[in-house]
Amino acid sequence: MYFAALLARTEDGWEASDTELDDVETLSDLAELAREASPEDDTVLVLIEQEDAWFGVVRIDGEDDPRIYVSDAAAASRSSYGEILLTAELLGRDPDTDEPDLDALDLDGTEDGESDSDPDTDSDDEDTIAPADAVPHGPVGDPVILDDLGVGEKELRALDADDALSAIAEALGASEVLETVR
Questions:
Q1: pTM attached to this predicted model
Q2: CB atoms within 10 A of CB 154
Q3: Longest dimension (CA), the chain
Q4: Most exposed: 7, 86, 99, 168, by fewest CB within 10 Å?
């Protein structure tokens, strides 16, 4: 189950709105949706969670590029909403490269299901390299995304996916407004 909300900072405090992400296909779409929530170019946070799996925070400050934090990239990569947040840049990939690098593929004749490993060797070989397109387990993005709002890097990384959005909202002083849209 997913939950997504927008928190827009205004002169009167934080305003929350439930948001529907069905029409959002890209990070640009998400940023535009967030900007529409704040006509004054104030800070807008998009909070997304998949129950007990991962959470993400997208911060939009006026016309600046979105800043993103995802608590578990591997879990988010298996989610359509997570894929929106996991841009090539966020994952440290070249955004201009859509095709796999054929020179980097290990085409040694074992791609038909044969194994080139010796069953007598330890499978935890230290020389094993993760594929270039592997998504890392654990957090990715800007860990200081909420630093100036009272949630430091250490606190953000320590949050569990099941209560992260509530903890963030509480630190911002926005727990009541978030609960009204939950």
A1: 0.78
A2: 8
A3: 67
A4: 99
